[in-house]
Amino acid sequence: MTTFTADxxxxxxxxxxxxxxxxxNALKLFLEHLEQRPEKKLLDVGPVCQENIxxxxxxxKKLYVCDMFIRLDRxxxxxxxxxxxxxxxxxxxxx
Length: 95
Fold this sequence. Notes:
The protein is α+β, with helices and mostly antiparallel strands. It contains three helices and three strands, in the order βαβαβα.
């Protein structure tokens, strides 16, 4: 899992939800809710994507990124129980 802090964010980039050519009411509501939180911490469990990291890092004090899709694929390829990927979210196995 990778952690990004507010000090590491790139604030020179404009990452407006409407700038990508579509609008999302759910994203708008989520960002409004996030703005009301004093300690803004986010966990992104989707594929690691530079655009997502930049977008959310500029809005969170701390951003955690853990690609659960890659971890699920590795479990399936090894024949391991797939429910063990959730163990990664509690910090076990991360250096």
